[in-house]
């Protein structure tokens, strides 16, 4: 660690807990690696990257063993100017909150022990009626006996008071079941082993099987092999495992990966979906089936699958999508090891704290651009094509209610001409057209003579179309939001987004992820968003792009009229930093 930068460091720490990192500085890479442990990347244009220090980012760091002194020393060592005292105070305050409360095993009759270093905090908890149902009894001034079933809910409630609980109460082992990784893939006989960062992520989760490990979230870009991290974690835990993912196609892709990269037999792997109800040593299901219930009643008949005592590990694929009902039932199964996998922890509902308290802290992350430089994901070029609103719909847009304006401009019929031009610019490349509105997608599919996949497309038909797209027999595929998540289309190199879910940063990141898997021929990926200029759609588009610009991606702005007149895309375009 550097002692002092003498006013020449790459970092500028501001009193609002933001830090600016000079990307041109010789110590940029070194500093970025240090501060990413305790600060969240907010924006990363070419010259100055912005990080924000938050309570959750500090608690994530504390959970991994980094304390306030370590953080302060890092900031002082790399800072160009003096670190504001208010920032040091906030770091000390939030870091000190982690570990004040520790949840341990050892209580009588299966009860858990909640220990505090401060007896006044125990008094505060006992005096708060919201905690009455969680507490069995007061052991002494520093310890409370907690009902085992309340392990999740009390952590969830305490974090809202800025008391993140250090949970070392341990885990039930579940029914043992050995899961061994292959040395060669079953599909093609090619050598297989986990990449270095995938092994590191598994180690960060497992922590040698101790109570400090066993729960947490791994954040890796789409295409970086999060499924392999899950498989690696399964092999370490060596127990019956439940995997929860986003849809039936994703279920079957998980099953295919398990057969390809582990020694599991066909009869060891079960599908629990709308089509099949197989419960086997490794079972893969969907969030939708777990949340299914009849009418307005609040009974979820398939929740029993999640609470089954046989599981030694539960894997939450695309954990950033975790629905509220699954949060509730996850609060009841805190004795099971839990691994969350995601490309982004961004939640538009701001429930990152619930992910922290119920799934676990962020235990491993590798920046998208680092993966790109290492060749583990494809290099991507992002474009926004802006076209004018047709005269025929200007009146309708002007008089429409706010709720209807977005749809009017999003389904702009002139977008079809732009799509055709983009396809012309990428001859021979597999192309995905992604959108929100089914009538719009149907019209595009008819124009292109391409099939369309939406929510009503049977799972068997979806798999058939995805397979044809992968094989190259389908040059273009039109998909609705059902293809946003957990779909493996390795050869897709061009995606055209024609409409989206308002300003969702999460969706933007996932859609780019459809084309990020490395291409066999090494070609780059292209991601286009077609928007109607001077409309609410353009405003939403700016917000959607935020997450990707935070990751270091650049958006090139193309005027539709100029774009249509070009033979090929040039470089004389406006760049969003």
TrEMBL record:
InterPro entries: ATP-dep_DNA_Helicase, ERCC3_RAD25_C, Helicase/UvrB_N, Helicase_ATP-bd, Helicase_C-like, P-loop_NTPase, XPB/Ssl2_N. Residues 207-363 form the Helicase ATP-binding domain. Keywords: ATP-binding, Helicase, Hydrolase, Isomerase, Nucleotide-binding. It comes from the Bacteria. It catalyses: Couples ATP hydrolysis with the unwinding of duplex DNA by translocating in the 3'-5' direction; ATP + H2O = ADP + phosphate + H(+). GO terms for molecular function: 3'-5' DNA helicase activity; ATP binding; DNA binding; hydrolase activity. Residues 415-569 form the Helicase C-terminal domain. Belongs to the helicase family. RAD25/XPB subfamily. This is DNA 3'-5' helicase. It comes from Candidatus Wallbacteria bacterium GWC2_49_35.
